[in-house]
């Protein structure tokens, strides 16, 4: 009886461990990433600390991956897709701001909708240039997005 329980536990452990090649979340790395880092500015000044997400604009099959980074106080960042700082898939992205401040607990400022390109070969000089949306976040800003009807 104890032997059969041990065998079942061993089979269970093998089953949940998988065959390798997965990322930390257990997903296969279906998208090739390239090294990607750079600077974030708001109204022409380095901006941070803040968390950013880059949402792919062009869908390439089922292999769509969001890139993310925690931006330093001096505005520098290194993008990650599967793991921290492992790069991003080449392509165009929409920039979405997350929480900001030392502990990433403050809400982000209202900014105009911003896009950025991660080049095919990657790069260490990617510039994300944010512009304030002003007191009243207008249509098309990240805090008041323009919603279009599906065709």
Name of the level-1 CATH class of the domain at 36-130: Mainly Beta
- Give the overall silhouette: globular
Q: What can be said about the biggest beta sheet?
A: 4 strands, mixed
SSE ordering? HEEEEEEEE
What is the CATH third-level topology name of the domain at 36-130? Immunoglobulin-like
Beta-strand content: 25-35%
Number of strands: 8
How many DSSP helices?
Answer: 1
Which structural class is indicated by helix and strand composition? mainly beta
CATH architecture of the domain at 36-130: Sandwich
Q: Uncertain segments of ≥5 residues (pLDDT<50)?
A: 5-23, 137-144
Assembly type of the shown chains? single chain
- For the termini, the CA-CA separation is 62 Å
Using only C-alpha atoms, the radius of gyration works out to 20 Å
Mean pLDDT: 80
The level of helicity is 10-25%
Brief summary of the model shown:
With 151 residues, the protein is mainly β. Helices cover 11% and strands 30% of the residues.
Keywords:
151 residues; mainly beta; Immunoglobulin-like; four-stranded mixed β-sheet; four-stranded antiparallel β-sheet; Carboxypeptidase regulatory-like domain-containing protein
Describe the model.
- The chain is mainly beta and 151 residues long.
- The chain has one helix at residues 2-17; strands at residues 36-42, 45-46, 50-56, 67-71, 76-78, 91-100, 115-118, 123-130.
- The strands form 2 sheets. Strands 1, 2, 5 and 8 form a 4-stranded mixed β-sheet that branches. A 4-stranded antiparallel β-sheet has the order 4-3-6-7, with no helix packed on it.
- β1 and β2 form a beta hairpin.
- The N and C termini lie far apart (62 Å).
């Amino acid at each position: 009886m104890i032997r059969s329980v041990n065998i079942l536990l061993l089979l269970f452990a093998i089953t949940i461990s998988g065959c390798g090649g997965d990322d930390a979340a257990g997903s296969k790395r279906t998208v090739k990433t390239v090294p990607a880092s750079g600077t974030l500015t708001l109204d022409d000044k380095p901006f941070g600390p803040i968390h950013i997400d880059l949402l792919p604009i062009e869908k390439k099959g089922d292999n769509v991956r969001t890139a993310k980074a925690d931006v330093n106080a001096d505005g520098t960042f290194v993008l990650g897709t599967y793991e921290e700082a492992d790069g991003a898939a080449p392509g165009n992205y929409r920039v979405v701001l997350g929480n900001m401040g030392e502990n990433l607990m403050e809400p982000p400022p209202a900014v105009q909708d911003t896009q950025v390109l991660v080049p095919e070969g990657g790069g260490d000089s990617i510039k994300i240039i944010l512009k304030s949306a002003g007191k009243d976040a207008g249509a098309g800003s990240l805090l008041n997005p323009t919603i279009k009807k599906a065709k």
